[in-house]
Amino acid sequence: MTRFFLSAALMFSLAACSAEQASATAAQAPACDVAEAALIGDWQRSGDAGTFEQFSLATQNGERRFDSWLHERPEVSGGSWTYQADDCRLALNGADSNLAWHFKVSADEAGKQITLSPLDAGSGTVDGSYQRLAD
Q1: pLDDT by residue (tens digit) across 49-92?
Q2: CA 53, 125, 87: angle at the middle one, nearest 5?
Q3: Distance CA 86, CA 34 (A)
Q4: What's the pLDDT tens digit per position in 17-57?
């Protein structure tokens, strides 16, 4: 009987510790500081690596449009995008295909450069930095 009470006390102690650790971890996790509005515009890769050479995120008539270019020719036209501002997750979808890319977004304070870090392991996407193109 004593062994049962000790086991129960240990399990309760571990559960309480896990809850405390979970709330501490959540408090340490940085909130997303990239607003959706900061993503809208035209972007060009600023280094050698990146999934896209150039891309555009726009809103038209309440719809979100994604287009990309490779060697100044259309690569993806009429795609769509979604953004989860609570955790900086950007999803890009091709229009006429099953293509989809998922990224974690970070940005500089001026909003002139973003970094897209792929969330899909093995998807062929790579980290890339992009510079905002002038309007």
Answers
A1: 999 999 999 998 999 999 999 999 999 999 999 999 999 999 99
A2: 100
A3: 9
A4: 445 544 444 445 568 999 999 999 999 999 999 999 999 99
Give the Cα separation of 34 and 40 in Å (integer).
11
Kindly state the DSSP code that residue 31 receives in the 8-state scheme: P
Q: Distance (Å, rounded) from C-alpha 45 to C-alpha 56?
A: 12
Per DSSP bridges, beta strands 63-70 and 54-60 are antiparallel
User: What's the full length of the chain, in residues?
Assistant: 135
For residues 126 and 50, the answer to whether their CB atoms sit within 8 Å is: yes
Residue type at 125 in one-letter notation: T
Place of tokens 């408090």: 27
Is the pTM higher than 0.85?
A: no
